[in-house]
Write a sequence for this structure.
């Protein structure tokens, strides 16, 4: 009896997961806003490091 229920559940699960060719939906763009923000932050980082380095050098020149 338990095997029959398990096989029935397995068949239902497999049939429910079969691909449906009638609908052609585009893939969902997950975390698109977060990815664009991260890419933007990556481009800002080298510029920020360059400005920080210039500022440090200016402070060192003033203290000498």
């Amino acid at each position: 009896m338990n095997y029959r229920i398990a096989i029935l559940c397995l068949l239902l699960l497999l049939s429910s997961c079969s691909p449906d060719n009638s609908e052609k939906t585009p893939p969902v763009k997950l975390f698109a806003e977060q990815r664009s923000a991260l890419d933007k932050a990556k481009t800002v980082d080298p510029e920020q490091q360059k400005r920080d380095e210039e500022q440090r050098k200016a402070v060192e020149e003033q203290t000498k």
